[in-house]
Amino acid sequence: MPALVVVGAQWGDEGKGKIVDLLSSQAKLVVRFQGGDNAGHTVVFGGKSYALHLAPSGILNPRARVVIGNGVVVNPASLRDEVAMLEGRGVKVKGRLFLSPAAHVILPTHRILDTLREEGGRGIGTTKKGIGPAYEDKVARIGIRVADYLDEGAFPELLETMLSVRSAELQRVKPLKAIREEILRDWPALRKFLAPYVRDTSAFVEAELKAGRRVLFEGAQGAMLDLDYGTYPFVTSSNTHAGAAAVGAGVGPTWIRSVLGITKAYTTRVGRGPFPTEIEGTVAHYIRETGHEYGTTTGRPRRIGWLDLVQLRFANRVNGVTSLGMMKLDTLSAVHPLKVCVAYKLRGKTVTDWPYSRRDLYEVEPVYEQFQGFSGELGKARRYSDLPKGAREYVEWVEKKLGVRIPLVSVGPDRKQTIWRDKKSLWG
Asked: Phi, psi at residue 301, to the nearest 5°?
């Protein structure tokens, strides 16, 4: 049975969590393959809203098991708090959530470094969760993996190595002795918490695939925050694309057959960096408030822009997207007119390919096609035919322009507010 990867096709916050939660009823296993607790996603289940940061969205489906793969960086304290929140609300976690021993651990040092850089003029608008510094240590080969964090004989020595390398920066905030004491004070309890969840997830995921069971790979952030193909340097510190699913889960790429990209009916972005279709003023304010466009992790207001087909076409290509889900179509109700970017103007020339140059991305001017828009309470629609004609025309026009089918449309946060246009399996 094939595997399916769900990825964000924009700058994150597209609504992946809702779709992964929905599709987890069709999967036996949901695997998170990159990122950390900087990736907030809100899922509405049973009339309750859950803000998740580390646990895959499939945790809310009692029939699914979930994996935090080796490509994720894990803050043990954050995971402990999230598990406590879920269990406190009646969600069974033990025996259903598994953590790779090869995943790297986020320590207080990483959060200190992240905050220091953000507030010291080197910031790019991170969540200050320590994600970037943790990945830095991983690449520098001084990071600490879960397996070593659990090893009573290895961790203190590895910690000393890491502290010695980062001492110059860390001591600008507090003495190394205080940092070391804090980490070693909390370590025994956190080690005890993590231990029951750790297993060889690479072997586990492959065994599920070999047994013919459906496996859903859940991406965090979005295509345009990818370390290689995003709006560098205003990106996250991991590869967010579908190709990273195999590496971050520990299985071969031949298992992956289908990629579902998730896009909003418009575009949003959090933090600094180029954003070609960004708008401000009354329309942006309306979309932000109607769509509740505030960060799950930080609460920061998201930047608002029109749908950008140049950007989406690029994201579809580098992810190998086989189908798209369009989210928050209901938010655009009563927005007149609607605009969609179909090309850019760059120094007098029309371009339809995504530029790699940072300067070009800041200088491009979007070329728009305009729509009359649509009105109505889209959140009440349960069938595609229930949507206003203008809304259906918008979806179909985007689908035709991109050349990628859009089998599902979301018109609200609840599972029931998901409309399937095409019943053809997403799993390939």
From this structure: -65, 135
Show the 3-state SS of the chain: CCEEEEEECCCCCCCHHHHHHHHHHHCCEEEECCECCCCCEEEEECCEEEEECCCCHHHHCCCCEEEECCCEEECHHHHHHHHHHHHHCCCCCCCCEEECCCCEECCHHHHHHHHHHHCCCCCCCCCCCCHHHHHHHHHCCCCCEHHHHCCCCCHHHHHHHHHHHHHHHHCCCCCHHHHHHHHHHHHHHHHHHHHHHECCHHHHHHHHHHCCCCEEEECCCCHHHCCCCCCCCCCCCCCCCCCHHHHHHCCCHHHEEEEEEEEECCEEECCCCCCCCEECCHHHHHHHHHCCCECCCCCCECEEECEEHHHHHHHHHHHCCCEEEEECHHHHCCCCCEEEEEEEEECCEEECCCCCCHHHHHHCEEEEEEECCCCCCHHHCCCHHHCCHHHHHHHHHHHHHHCCCCCEEECCCCHHHEEECCCCCCCC
Domains of the chain are 3-101+197-258 (3.40.440.10), 104-194 (1.10.300.10), 264-420 (3.90.170.10)
- What positions carry a catalytic annotation? 13, 41
Q: What is the pLDDT of residue 1?
A: 58
pTM over 0.70: yes
Average confidence score pLDDT of the chain:
94
Whether pLDDT at 123 is above 70: no
In whole angstroms, how far apart are CA 312 and each of 2, 148, 159?
25, 40, 42
Strands 349-351 and 338-346: antiparallel
Give the C-alpha separation, 17 to 235, whole Å.
20
Residues counted in the chain: 428
Structure tokens at 322: 């086989």
R_g (Cα) of the chain, nearest Å: 22
CB 58 within 8 A of CB 68: no
Rounded to 10 deg, the angle between the 155-170 and 176-194 helix axes is 140
With CA atoms as reference, report the closest residue to 422 among 401, 395, 402: 395
Q: Tell me if 172 sits within 8 A of 153, measured CB to CB.
A: no
**Better-scored residue on pLDDT, 156 or 40:** 156
Contact 109, 170 (CB under 8 A): yes
